[in-house]
Amino acid sequence: MALPNAYAQYNNSKILTASPAELTLMLYDGAIKFCNIAILAVEQKDIEKASNNIIKTERIIDYFRQTLDMRFEVAKDFDRVYEYLSHRLVEANVKKDKEILEEVNEHIRSMRDTWKEVMRINKEKGTA
Prior knowledge:
It is a single chain. The chain is globular. The protein has 128 residues and is an all-alpha fold. Helices cover 87% and strands 0% of the residues. The protein has helices at 2-17, 20-43, 47-66, 73-95, 98-125. The termini are far apart. The chain has one domain (35-125): Up-down Bundle (Four Helix Bundle (Hemerythrin (Met), subunit A)).
């Protein structure tokens, strides 16, 4: 079927042409999506699906941690938040705990929304 292939090409094009700021936003959105899928999977008692999507969320958080520029003080603050989220995701995966996943997702949404606001302000200033 040609439609899924066209969609995949569109997504690849979107990624290849995105700015670093837009890629970061896409990663936040991906983490939220995978966390939402994990929450639903826990509710449905689909342990494998929950675990796989928690791991996907963990990988995005780990990527954010690995790419922090520790020369800046704010990076240390982000590192502590990402470390906390990583620990909570491990705990959620072990326990298959929906409440922990909801907490983590709330933090990720807040960070994503803050990032979107930074992007908007930079765009208005013409620095994006």
